[in-house]
Amino acid sequence: MNSARADSVTVLIAGDRPVYRSSLRILLDDVDALEVVGDVCTGPDAVTVVQRLRPDVVLLHVNPPSVPLVEVITPITQRCPDTAVLIVSIADDREAFLAAMRAGARGYLSRGAPSEDLLLAIGIVRSGGLVFDSSTSGWVTDHLAQPVGVAKPFPELTDRELEVLELVADGLGTAAMAKQLGLSVKTVRNYLSRIFAKLHLVDRAEAAVRARQAGLGH
Question: Structural domain of residue 91, as residue ranges?
């Protein structure tokens, strides 16, 4: 880093699409208060580079289907607590948003957010604040408005995973779940795998029993 930029906010760009990473880098390189220290693909590479460079902010671009957010955010926030994670997502995905915030992300913007909002968000998360754009503000309001004291079964699961588990309790097959949720069969299978891993379950039959014991199912 040169002396003229000694006080710059250092930013690492992580994303699956090289073209988008390049466009972000061009945008941020024109801002004197920022210094882009690198750009990498989303996933294990991002975690490794963050640990080595210790940037102030990681700008994480999410392009589904990609590596689950928590698998990237959690090790970053645990190993590099001074690095703020700011998500830029191509999809309006409530479950991804909530999972990202639970994992320790400091902000969540849609890819269509104006560049001015992105630059402002970088400054906010660097200062320890939280930021999200208008597309996610409704989700935050809904989440905070949930009745206090109502225990959520299996708190380690995301809302979407819990929804899938409830369908397992109802006895639906993978194809039927995919149709009802508007997802692909492969995506449902991925959700099931994550549910089994988180709850230490052997198979769907055991999952159905545990779910019904917790009051899930109709």
Answer: 3-143
Q: What is the per-residue pLDDT across 161-189, written as a single tens digit (0 to 9) for each?
A: 899 999 999 999 999 999 999 989 999 99
For residues 151 and 144, what is the distance between their CA atoms, to the nearest angstrom?
14
Neighbouring C-alpha atoms within 13 Å toward the C-beta of 102: 15
Residue-by-residue DSSP string for 56-101: SEEEEEE-SSSS-HHHHHHHHHHH-TTSEEEEEESS--HHHHHHHH
Count of all residues that appear for the chain in the document: 218
Q: What are 120-167's pLDDT values in tens digits?
A: 999 999 999 988 877 676 666 666 666 555 557 887 888 888 999 999
Residue 71 burial (CB count, 10 A): 15
Verify that 14 and 99 share a domain, yes or no. Answer: yes
116 is a domain residue = yes
Kind plus residue range of the DSSP H or E element containing 108 = strand 107-110
- As beta bridge partners, residue 89 has 62, 110
Distances (CA, A) of 78 to 50, 60, 135: 12, 16, 28
Task: Output the domain CATH number for residue 78.
Answer: 3.40.50.2300
Neighbours of 20 (CB within 10 A): 17
Q: What is the count of structural domains for the chain?
A: 2
Taking CB atoms within 8 Å and a gap of at least 24, the contacts of 123-126 are: 123/9, 123/33, 125/57, 125/84, 125/85, 125/86, 126/9, 126/56, 126/57, 126/84
Has residue 88 been placed in a domain? yes
Using CA atoms, how far apart are residues 178 and 42, in angstroms rounded to an integer?
26
